[in-house]
UniProtKB/TrEMBL annotation:
PROSITE patterns: PFKB_KINASES_2
Gene Ontology molecular function terms on file: kinase activity
Domain called Carbohydrate kinase PfkB: residue spans: 56-284, 341-398
PANTHER family: PFKB FAMILY CARBOHYDRATE KINASE, PHOSPHOTRANSFERASE SYSTEM TRANSPORT PROTEIN
Protein name, per record: PfkB family carbohydrate kinase
Matches recorded under CDD domains: ribokinase_group_B (cd01945)
The organism's place on the tree of life at top rank: Eukaryota
SUPFAM superfamilies from the UniProt entry: Ribokinase-like
Gene assigned in the entry: 11426715
Keywords assigned: Kinase, Transferase
Similarity section: Belongs to the carbohydrate kinase PfkB family.
Length: 409
């Protein structure tokens, strides 16, 4: 089996490890014991249960047109290559994540901006076909809509994206307070893809004033993102973000640092490519009597429980523990290790938008109060389905997909 990796939020990979512990966390092993729970989710056929009582979500961010082409090998400079297949499809972090949420049964509303060009019309029509509410998308007179060229290498199973931002951009003056209040009406959650941070802050402050929980996607540090993160209750970030943002020596210590710096955060998830994902959940009740544990050595022991023989997504969870980062402080909470599905090479088509699918599933899980032990494998399963087709949206599963039945029962 070959080993496939994706640099950002793609959590679905075809891989076989020689070690159960990610290289980022290799440290001296302390001889302490940990009480662990290891959950494997088996797929079975059940009737689809009722939707969460409050399943309206609002998303803010980018929606695009993706021009996708598969090639047998990425071209060298001045080379010419022939495409083996092609597709024109909607894209963009927010557009993809809300499409995923809609197919899972949520009622998403998207705040974004397109131009009144052919691409903008295509973006709106495709979102509406998937039951995403586009009435809060600003349509500019003139200008151009956002688009991307995406090359998918069928040999390495990687994708290369060239992104062209739309013009004019979405600015606070495009959005009235009455428009935002209408968008927030009945909303259980507001999601931000980390783009257009000035306008995102304008929207985020209004959401916070209306006491609506906020989920922020953090791909890389950028101006304005810090303040947006202070408003968030939930964060999903790329593998490189936690250490880049906190200047911590490891990902586990960076996650503890994030919860120390962001007291409103209930959980943070970092996607780790072929190593799946890692989640730190804050404990609501801090037990002063808990023993303090060094976070790196604790996580090393937790990763020892990972079963590499399992192809389906799984979750390993710790008990509530007081995690210490030297020089910073302690956080009381639980760690969860979510594994990625091992997709056969013959079935792995395209990782474009896998992270967006993951976030769409996380939105559903938040709305349905899903336990983390179910949420992480569920999100990995949704993203795995997406990776079996070309483009960010073609393979997104619907709520009735039998592969999701056991998670929704």
């Amino acid at each position: 089996m070959t080993s496939i990796s994706k640099p950002f939020n793609g959590t679905i990979f075809h891989t076989h490890h020689s070690s159960s512990f990610p290289h980022q966390f290799r440290q001296h092993l302390h001889s302490h014991s940990i009480t662990l729970r290891h959950k494997s989710i088996k797929i079975s056929a059940h009737a689809v249960p009722p939707l969460p009582q409050n399943h309206t979500v609002v998303g803010f961010g980018m929606t695009t047109v993706d021009f996708l082409a598969t090639v047998d090998g990425y071209p060298k400079p001045d080379d010419k290559v022939r495409t083996t297949s092609s597709k024109v499809q909607g894209g963009g972090n927010a557009g993809n994540a809300l499409t995923c949420a809609a197919r899972l049964g949520l009622k998403p509303k998207l705040i974004s901006k397109v131009a009144d060009d052919a691409q903008g019309k295509s973006i709106l029509e495709e979102l509406e076909a998937d039951c995403v509410d586009t009435s809060f998308i600003v349509v500019s007179k003139g200008g151009s809509s956002t688009f991307s060229y995406v090359l998918v290498d069928t040999q390495t199973k990687t994708r290369t994206s060239i992104y062209t931002p739309g013009d004019p951009p979405l600015v606070p003056d495009d959005l009235s307070q009455s428009m935002l209040l209408s968008a927030f009406d009945g909303a259980r959650l507001v999601y931000f893809d980390g783009m257009s941070t000035e306008t995102a802050l304008f929207v985020g402050r209004e959401a916070a004033r209306n006491n609506i929980p906020i989920l922020v996607e953090a791909e890389s540090p950028r101006e304005g993102l810090d303040e947006l993160l202070t408003l968030a209750e939930f964060v999903v970030c790329s593998a490189r973000f936690p250490q880049a943002w906190t200047q911590s020596p490891s990902i586990p210590s960076a996650l503890v640092s994030m919860l120390l710096r962001l007291p409103n955060i209930k959980f943070v998830i970092v996607t780790l490519g072929e190593d799946g994902c890692l989640m730190l959940e804050r404990s609501a009740n801090e037990d002063v009597g808990l023993e303090e544990r060094n976070v790196e050595s604790f996580l090393e022991l937790l990763y020892k429980e990972k079963d590499e023989r399992l192809a389906i997504p799984t979750c390993i969870s710790s008990v509530v523990t007081k995690f210490r980062v030297n020089g910073l402080g302690t956080v009381c909470g639980r760690f969860f290790i979510g594994t990625a599905e091992k997709i056969p090479d013959s079935e792995l088509i395209d990782t474009t938008g896998a992270g967006d699918a993951f976030i769409g599933a996380i939105m559903y899980a938040i709305c349905s109060n899903m336990a983390p032990e179910i949420m992480l494998p569920f999100a990995a399963q949704v993203a795995a389905a997406k990776c079996r087709a070309l483009g960010a949206r073609t393979g997104l599963p619907h709520r009735t997909d039998p592969r999701l039945a056991s998670f929704l029962s």
